[in-house]
Amino acid sequence: MKEPPLFQHIYMRKFAFHFLISIGLFACGTQTTERSFDSTLLTKASPEQVEQLVEDFILAEDSSTIEIPEGFYELNTQLILDNKSAIRIKGAGMDKTVLSFRNLKSGGEGVKIVGNQISIEDLSIEDAPGDGIKAQHTDGITFRRINVTWTNGDKSKNGTYAIYPVQCKNVLIDECIASHSKDAGIYVGQSENIVVKNSLAFGNVAGIEIENSDNAEVFGNTARDNAGGILVFNLPGLPKSDGKGTKIYDNDIIDNNHKNFAVPIGEDPNGNTVTMIPPGSGIVLLAAKEVEIYNNRILRNKTYGVAIASYQVTGFPAEAPNWSPYTSDVFVHDNQYERKSFSIPDFTREMGQLVTVHNAHGILKTQDIIYDGIWDKSISETIDSNPMRICIQESGMENLRFTRFYLMDGEENIQSFKDHELFQNCKVNVQTNVSGIAFLNSAPIQ
Amino acid sequence: MKPTTLTLRDLLLASLVAIALLGSCQSEKAEEQTDQSKSGQRALAPEEATGQYPYRRLSTYGFFEGEMAQLDPSEKLIPYQPASSLFTDYAMKSRFVMIPEGEKAQLVEDEIELPKGSILVKNFYYPEDYRKPEGDRRIIETRLMIHEEKGWQSYPYIWNEEQTDAVLKIVGGETEVRFIDKNGKDQVINYLVPNKNQCKSCHNKNEALAPIGIQPKHLNNDLKYDSGTENQLAHWTKLGKLEGFTGKDNHPSVINYEDHSQALDDRAMAYLDINCSHCHRAEGPASTSGLFLTFDQKDPMKLGINKAPVAAGKGSGKFKFDIVPGHGEQSILTYRMNSTEVGIAMPEIGRTTIHAEGVELIKEWINQMK
Hints:
The complex is a heterodimer. Chain A has helices spanning 5-13, 47-59, 350-358, 438-441, and strands at 23-26, 29-32, 64-68, 71-74, 79-91, 97-100, 109-126, 131-136, 139-149, 163-166, 169-174, 177-179, 184-189, 192-197, 200-202, 206-211, 214-219, 222-224, 228-233, 246-249, 252-254, 281-286, 289-294, 297-299, 304-309, 328-333, 336-338, 367-371, 390-393, 402-406, 415-417. In chain A, the strands form 2 sheets. Chain A has a 29-stranded mixed sheet that branches. By secondary structure, chain A is mainly beta. In chain B, helix 6 (264-276) crosses helix 9 (356-367). The N and C termini of chain B lie far apart (52 Å). By secondary structure, chain B is an alpha+beta fold. Residues 1-8 and 10-41 of chain B have low confidence and may be disordered. Chain B has 3 domains: 1-33; 54-243, no CATH class; 259-367, no CATH class.
């Protein structure tokens, strides 16, 4: 299994500290509270040091560095960097500098960043009641080697997003770790020009999610042990009304069979779309536009490897200005698939039940690729012309389990087909250009 | 406070003072080590009104005449009061604006632009007994917003136990407040003073710090002055401090949501406007959600009707939509208003208790929707 280099590093050096608190097997999915290292062994920062840190964020001057020395910082207020430019926030290492928001009494996120050319590096953020770190309205935001997690045994208490850039431009997430969030570990929303690379997302409901965003590349990551590995969504009614252009390549999308703990066990999904994701989901496209998925290892996800779906499957109102509920222009090719042996698809979520019961290969069979087969009838009367331009070119396609559903005549009339041939003889040219993010890659601004 | 007999409360206050002093001693020590100019020792030293803001002590500004705790404004200050008030843990507020000598505010396109050098002074206090709100009180903090050369800046000042002065504390703070509520019940609140940058969680317009209450829609109504009752904007105009006000009917006006004689719809929208719309509007930080709650919002989806949440996480509870018409109890809006859990509670900062009256109002409003 490929992990980011730094994570390997921590594994080696901190092997003694690395432990699995518990891995339980549940009927509806596995569950993990694995920790990358034990932050309780760090020396606690004094109240004065904590206050100093809060003040450093408030008083930061443009073009400066905020150094956060080794230690365990227990914060009871938010760390907010507001409208600053060219700031580097630097810890002593993911396993050395830990910002704990367990005692935060108000505020939507632990760390909040607004500005231009900001980087945050080499630290951990733990136990924020809402989101871990949020960056908004920032042009040029780099998250490098930061680890954002929750340490609660009871994961229902965990926060929403771990790493959360929203309404940003030029976003780089590199060698980060995001784990145990109740929604997405790495969530990029309503942004443009995005690179998520060499990062690890595990134990979340969703590993990595790109939502209502343009021009994103997601590569070299490991998304494992989430309920869903990598998601590309477009939701209705947002200021950034739709998004397009995402490439997902060279990722390990493995064993995403964690139970979906976004709502308590036994409770129905709520209005958050992620609550509907069935455990055992590799990649999910929902109302996505222009997506290319290639050279990934999509292994042992018990429900399906790749799901191509339109927003109508959520059952929510599917109309909004400048937004389309259909997933269109998708190119899936040259990925490696492996079905988990001795396992059955999820049946706790509707999409899981659909696969379990209605797939084209026989009840209880894990699928490699599913397509909900919902198309825009104003383009074509039938799906035979592939009106939404869904293109699939996988080697050994005949050995993969592909199901196209027909869902457009209600729940009583669900049909399924193995007709991958319909989607096999085309390509989609997905354009992304993230060269502008290269400068974020170089040595940080001083 | 009249120190006649030593009550349990006095003892408690005394111990709080002791704890506070202990805390400040520690921070003074840290300052010596780090040579930082913060609160503590330096704040207690005399300070001159140099015109270089911010001052360390509230008293240096000379806003108040006589005993500070009376909050008796000097002539430079104009009292103001938005029609509806943001809920902050039942704290009462007294607000003043200082517009520099010889300068005027401009009312343009439903916005009030205050000149550079203007200062907003907002005092947060708790009466000991809400059945006698004019009686003894404890002032917790005074927040200043100063319109500096580089834009608005916010500065929180925390009052001392003796109620003789307040000291700038940019990292915020936390204090226990006790009072008797309007039903005669003892209440204890863990009051949070925001850190300087948290102020912008609410005071945020296109990522610039901006006043909330100083908008025509909030001030286009009557207020009782020493000189008699008058429309606030008309009063400013008469004082020669405002230009552009052309009469009450020519400018928007939000009602007071506490005024039960008004239509439910208007009261609910007034409530959402003052409590939510500083974030939930196109220019606010919660624009990410697509939920826009200004008083004049007419688009059902932007208002949250049958709208699925976006990034609400556990804030969604068991519910599918922000507003489910006819079902206040199944709407995410009321669910989040009715929680104190960080991550669920809305607004995200500014309260640690539930505003029961507000929850009731919004529930009632949603219940009668079809």
